[in-house]
Specification:
Radius of gyration: 23 Å
Order of helices and strands: HHHHHH
Strand content: under 5%
Shape: elongated
Number of helices: 6
Distance between the termini: 36 Å
Number of strands: 0
Helix content: 40-55%
Length: 163
């Protein structure tokens, strides 16, 4: 199938497919005599895997590592477990941060119970005040412990992205 058919089959934009190819998440498709990319069922399956990972808010580097193990099914999955554990920790941190944001927004909303002219709007006046001090950024480190990747699983690109 051509890229348009792949996009329909995977419910994905053509540009997203090209981006995933450039990022090494999808293998380059062979080309026809007319220089069109020709995709097969393996591309649909891999694209579905990538999209599922993205729906779980995984980074491209996390997905790349998962794909390396998926491509080497005889490898042990300890590093996959560690990656998911680290990702769960990042999600938990983000949830705490979003809850704090929600509290701040609700407190701001309580500053304006009625309809006033903009000059007397409690929300606008509250936003004009200095906000709470920002927390210092968390130290950035690798998402998962660095461990050797089995030779059959090598071939991914780039280092782990940081949050």
């Amino acid at each position: 199938m051509k890229i348009g058919a792949l996009a329909v089959a995977a419910q994905t934009q053509v540009e997203t497919i090209r981006y995933y190819e450039r990022e090494g998440l999808l293998p380059q498709a062979p080309r026809s005599e007319g220089n069109y990319r020709i995709y097969g069922p393996g591309h649909v399956e891999r694209l579905a895997f990538v999209r599922h990972c993205r729906s779980l808010d995984m980074t491209l580097d996390e997905i790349r590592l998962l794909l390396q193990f998926k491509d080497a099914p005889q490898s042990e999955c300890g590093q996959v477990n560690a990656l998911l554990d680290a990702h769960i920790g990042h999600v938990a941190t983000r949830i705490r941060e979003l809850r704090q944001l929600e509290k701040q927004l609700k407190a701001l909303r309580e500053q304006c119970a009625g309809v006033h002219d903009a000059a007397h709007c409690g929300i606008l006046n509250g936003l004009a005040q200095p906000g709470p001090p920002a927390d210092p950024p968390a130290p950035v480190g690798p998402l998962v412990p660095v461990a050797p990747v089995p030779p059959a699983a090598r071939g991914g690109r780039g280092a782990h992205r940081r949050w």
